[in-house]
Every structure is written in C-alpha cells, then in structure tokens.
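> example.struct
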C-alpha cells in the first residue's frame, strides 16, 4: 500500500492511480501486472526474457482473472523493463 520512492505502490498500479514518470517511460516501465512484478522483485526477475518465476506468476494471474471473469490486460511481464 505504501510507495517506496522511486517505486510506486503496487496498489497505485493495480487501481489505475499510477502515472509513469519520465524515468519510468525511459526504462520501459508501463503500468499493468508486469510493473507490479517489477516493484516487488524487479532486481531478480526483470530485464530478462523467459524467466520461469515470472512465467509461473503470469499463469496464476491469468487463471485468477479467468475465474473472476476479468481481462488480464497487456504488459503482463517485465522482461523488457529496467528494474527499479
């Protein structure tokens, strides 16, 4: 719930309150689920492709979205985002 600048809070991202800064745009940090991964564990999981941890998390997220009948949205991973 609490942002740790320069990171926004996961809550801000999930409820659509997050607005990308110039630094975020330059680092390819777009809102949606991939940015939440970046906030929580970006140093370990972002800016790398085909990470099994990220792929598993995306799979779980998509499954819950399906159960709740909501769109998972774009930008599900952080493979091309610079970590915070």
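> example.seq
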């Amino acid at each position: 719930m609490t942002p740790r600048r320069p990171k926004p809070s996961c809550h801000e991202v999930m409820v659509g309150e997050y607005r990308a800064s110039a630094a975020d745009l330059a680092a390819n940090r777009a809102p949606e689920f991939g940015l939440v991964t970046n906030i929580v564990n970006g140093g370990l999981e972002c800016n790398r492709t085909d990470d099994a941890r990220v792929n598993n998390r995306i799979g779980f997220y998509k499954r819950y979205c399906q159960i709740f009948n909501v769109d998972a949205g774009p930008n599900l991973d952080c493979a091309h985002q610079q970590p915070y």
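> remarks
The chain has one domain: 1-84.
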